[in-house]
Structure formats: structure tokens, C-alpha cells
Design brief:
Strand content: 25-35%
Oligomer: single chain
């Protein structure tokens, strides 16, 4: 099993390009199920989760062709197997995103209940409730969701909680439903907007994406399209945090600060100087950061996917910060590993109190989930001596060539087998 070996103490300096967004690419790949015509995508990141989704789509009969460095052509003309098996789904929760489009196009779907990172409950009941409101017959048996509907009917759906994948699943299903579907309490994340833009380019009639009420007028069929995946805002935020923690000066290209207001504001509160360009962000860090408290909440508030990275920078910042996690109940698992490096963290329910220390010390640590992996890398970059991070397969699910990009910025990072 691969590990990451980091020699700490180097300030990150230089320029690196940000990849396409994993959390936008995954639902957009599933949109290929909605049409028999080709969907051509660019800026697709090379990640394990993307490869898993492509294998899953291939098993269903979707044709997949690589085009250039970051391009894909997907053809749903051969779709003949509306089944997502446990073997394929168990490693990736986003696999549930095939449920809506399969049901809408094939009239049936059999999808295994998903796996993924162990950061807390992410139930699929909102997906099922919405599809039932649209006339689907849904049963959960032997670990699989079985859904049938001759043709889905438009409906008014109000989710009990804000759910990104639930919003995306129901939006895709509604594109081919008969009549109008209204999704209330919809997720407002930029990745939802990116999916909506792709669907509109395929002929869908969608309004309100990016607000908490999305309206979809169903159409008889969708056609092919070309779409560029948005830049990854979480990868962007992670590299900004790594530069901030190490007292660095970096410029990130092929990205945008438009989706990162809450993160940029907190980094500026911590003492960083940030310059925003049209498709780039430059950050200059002070010698030592100031501690910043935060509370995670659905977009446009502070993202839960950046909580672990900010815990890492608060570990070496001046002062005391309180981090409140409101999205996932198990998302402080990285705290114990950070403490192995010398961090001063106290967990009280859904709050973490982080007292900054002058320095961290390298040690062997273990990644527990995707974003926890990123926090350990940031801590390892500032720690004195050597840090060895085990179970980095989590990293490969969500960060493209992270050791190469960090090395380009001057970090001493290498993958060991």
C-alpha cells in the first residue's frame, strides 16, 4: 500500500494549475445516461473516483473514449444494464447518482446502497422520497435500491435536509419526467450549477440552479453536448491552506475565487494577502498565521470539505480557534492524527478547540478519509522532520497528482510503495 513521505520545513512557492472538480465531474458523468447521443467533456480530473464511475458506466453499456489529456466522450446509445453492483459502488458514495438518470431513461434501476469515506451518515432517503413523489415504485432489499416507473411525473419536492447528491439525482431524473418538477430546499453548491449548465446544453429546461428552488420542465429526450468541468474549489482551497501554513507565496491557475468567498475571507482573517485574478489566485502568507474560528454549513457558508485543512493551519497559528462541524458527525477523525504531530486539540461534541503551538514534529500518521488526508499533508509540510502518511488511497480519490504539484511548489514530498 502506498504511503506519502514528507520532509517538513519548506515554504511553498511558485505556480501550479488546478484540476477539474471531482464533485462536479461525477454527476456530469452520470448525465451521459440520459441521452443516446454523445456527451463530450473537457477538464476531467484523473482520479480514482472518476475511474470507478467510468467502469460503472461501462458495465451499464455506456461507451467511454478518452480524448486528449483531460477529455472524455461518453455515449449512452448502448445502455442496456441499469444495475450498479455492490462491488463497484462500495468504495464511492457518488455511485448513487446513477439512480435518477437510469430510472428516467430506462424505467428501472437497481443500485447498491453506497460506501465511501466513514465521515458520518449520508442517507439516501431523500433521493428515494423525491423519486416516489415523481411516481416511482421504490423498494430497498438485500442492500439494493430497486426503482421502477413507466415514466416519471413532475412533482413538487421539498427535501427534509439540504443534500447535494439528492438535488443532483432528482434534477437529472426530472429532466425526462412528464411536466414540471419543483425542488425546494435544494442545494446551492456551484457543482449543482455546473451539472445544470451541462444538462441545459443537452436540451434540458432548468431554472433556479444556485438558489434553493430549482424548476425543471421535463422534455421527451436530451441530445448530445460539449461541456467543460468547472475548476475544483476544494483542491484550490487546499493548496491555499498549504501555502498559508508554510509561510509561502503561490499562484494557482485555471481556477476561480468566485466559489470560495468563505475560504478566502478566513485566510485573509488569518493574515494572508490574496490577489484575485480572472482565472487565478495568488496568496502571500505572513511569517505566522492568526487563529481563525469557523462553523461549517451548506454553501455559500464555510464548506465542510475545508474544515480539516483549516484545523491543520490553526494547529500552528497564533491564538485559539473554535471549529464547529454541523454537517457530518464523524468529521474530526483527523484530530487524533494531528495530535500525534504535537497539535493541541480538544474535542467537545461537534466543536474542536485548537490552540496553536510554535511547531509540529514529524511522525507516522494514518489518513482516515479524503479531506483528513489533506490536513495531514498540510501539517506534515510545516512539521519539523519526517512525516509518513499511511492509507493515502483516500487522497487518490480526490486530488490529482498531489505529490507532483506540491513538489513543483518546492515541497519535499514523495510516494513510497
Amino acid at each position: 500500500m502506498d504511503k506519502l513521505l514528507i520532509q517538513g520545513g519548506q515554504s511553498l512557492r511558485g505556480e501550479v494549475a488546478i484540476s477539474g472538480a471531482k464533485n462536479a465531474a461525477l454527476p456530469i458523468l452520470c448525465a451521459s445516461l440520459l441521452s443516446a447521443e454523445p456527451l463530450n467533456l473537457t477538464n476531467v480530473p484523473h482520479l480514482n473516483d472518476i475511474a470507478t464511475m467510468l467502469r460503472l458506466l461501462g458495465e451499464m453499456g455506456v461507451g467511454v473514449t478518452m480524448e486528449g489529456v483531460d477529455g472524455l466522450a461518453l455515449s449512452g446509445a448502448g445502455l442496456n444494464n441499469p444495475v450498479a453492483s455492490y462491488e463497484r459502488v462500495k468504495t464511492m458514495r457518488a455511485s448513487i447518482l446513477v439512480l435518477g438518470p437510469l430510472l428516467a431513461r430506462c424505467g428501472e434501476a437497481k443500485v447498491s446502497l453506497p460506501g465511501g469515506c466513514a465521515i458520518g451518515a449520508r442517507p439516501v432517503d431523500q433521493h428515494i422520497k423525491g423519486l416516489q413523489a415523481m411516481g416511482a415504485e421504490v423498494k430497498v432489499e438485500h442492500g439494493y435500491v430497486h426503482a421502477r416507473a413507466q415514466r416519471l411525473k413532475g412533482a413538487r419536492i421539498c427535501t427534509d435536509m439540504v443534500t447535494v447528491t439528492g438535488t443532483e439525482n432528482l434534477m437529472m431524473a426530472a429532466c425526462l419526467a412528464e411536466g414540471e418538477t419543483i425542488i425546494e430546499n435544494a442545494a446551492r453548491e456551484p457543482e449543482v450549477v455546473d451539472l445544470a449548465n451541462c444538462l441545459v446544453s443537452m436540451g434540458a429546461r432548468i431554472s433556479g440552479a444556485g438558489t434553493d428552488v430549482i424548476r425543471i420542465q421535463g422534455v421527451d429526450k436530451l441530445h448530445g453536448a460539449t461541456h467543460a468541468i468547472m475548476p475544483d474549489r476544494i483542491e484550490t482551497g487546499t493548496y491555499l491552506c498549504a501555502a498559508a501554513a508554510t509561510g509561502g507565496d503561490v499562484r494557482l491557475t485555471r481556477t476561480s475565487a468566485a466559489y470560495l468567498d468563505a475560504v478566502v475571507d478566513k485566510l485573509m482573517d488569518a493574515g494572508c494577502d490574496i490577489v484575485i485574478e480572472r482565472d487565478a489566485i495568488r496568496l502571500k502568507a505572513p511569517q505566522r498565521l492568526k487563529a481563525v474560528s469557523l462553523r461549517t454549513a451548506p454553501y455559500p457558508a464555510f464548506p465542510t470539505d475545508m474544515q480539516a485543512q483549516f484545523m491543520a493551519i490553526n494547529c500552528v497559528a497564533e491564538g485559539v480557534a473554535t471549529i464547529r462541524e454541523t454537517i457530518f458527525e464523524n468529521r474530526f477523525m483527523h484530530a487524533n492524527e494531528l495530535m500525534r504531530l504535537g497539535a493541541d486539540i480538544q474535542i467537545e461534541g461537534s466543536n474542536a478547540i485548537v490552540r496553536g503551538v510554535p511547531a509540529l514534529e514529524g511522525a507516522a500518521v494514518m489518513a482516515t478519509d479524503l479531506r483528513a488526508s489533506a490536513s495531514l499533508i498540510i501539517a506534515g509540510l510545516v512539521a519539523q522532520g519526517e512525516t509518513l502518511i499511511d492509507r493515502i488511497y483516500h487522497l487518490d480519490r480526490g486530488y490529482e497528482r498531489i505529490e507532483e504539484k506540491l513538489a513543483r511548489l518546492g515541497a519535499s514530498v514523495k510516494r513510497v510503495h
